[in-house]
What does this fold into?
Amino acid sequence: MISSMTGYGRGEVTEEQITAVAEVRSVNSRYFEVTSKLPRTMSLRENEVKELLRAKFVRGKINVVLSITHENTNEVPLKINTTAAKSFYKLLNDLRKAVKIQEKIKLEHLLNFPEVIEINEFEKGDEREWLIAKESLNKALDEVVLMRRHEGGELLNDLLQRIKRIDEMIDQIETISRDRLPEERKRLEERVKELVNDQSVIDSNRLELEFALMVDKLDTTEECVRFRSHNKYFVKSFYNEEAAGRKLNFLTQEMNREANTIGAKANNAEIAHLVIVIKEELEKIREQLQNIE
It folds into this structure.
């Protein structure tokens, strides 16, 4: 079943005095793009977050915001780099003396250096945080998937109606094309008779050949058959498990090509009008496909 690329999900999990909140937003994109805003304690988990998303989605621009809060702030997995703090303190003191500034070095000055406070990346606290964060993220992703599928269902109904309408117009074109051939044959015969005074000199074999050539130029049966084949494959692609967006875009291009060929061959006002309407429907389909994964 097709899915939209637009969705939103939120997941919140609280365990062991740790609360993780994940928000995921997804919008249209030709490719798979991920931007994430993670807490410092999760800074090395960016690739793991991306892999979680890649397992769910093929296309779309996806934004992830993850936050971690601790009820017991004493267990925040951060530590002071005492050596770095002393070095920066000495450096700032030397700078203060060099430029003869009277202001004393304060804690807020040292906190401007991110090296002073380090993350315990591989301590147990980080692993516990990650498990909770991953659970909240999976909850958010499940909501996004559900919303994308729901919107995909709405798009599916719209696309099915448009394909059905195009099929009906292709049937009309084929009928018009077939019914006008006897008229064209009669017109050709009358034209030849007007040009030739002595009817006995008319070569019936040559006349049949000319009519066959004319039929080949005017008959759109082959294009209509291919168009119906594209339509059937188009609808069938809706129900495949794999993402169908790119495939459907390609099929739309092929349908548009067949419509152009029909319009060029027909040389008929009624068919030309139907071709214009078909191309309008194809353009609306193409716009809708920009939302499909």
